[in-house]
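May I ask you to review the protein record following this short note?
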Amino acid sequence: MKIDPRVTFALILALFLETAGALMWAGRAAARLDEVERAVATQPEVAERLARLEEQVADARRALARIEQRLDR
């Protein structure tokens, strides 16, 4: 295999480094995307838990109101 004399070692090195950088960037982007997907996957669970907590607080407030009414009598 013959390489054109105009292609220097610096050019080959630059192409190699750019390719390595692009692959590293793609790997980091994939890792960030995986992290975002995991976070989004937990969102429905969090919303459901929050709705349950809100209902429990509402029940506690109603019970407290009944207790206060009985104490006021």
In short: The chain is about 90% helix and 0% strand. The two ends are 102 Å apart (CA to CA). The mean pLDDT is 89. The first helix runs from residue 9 to 72.
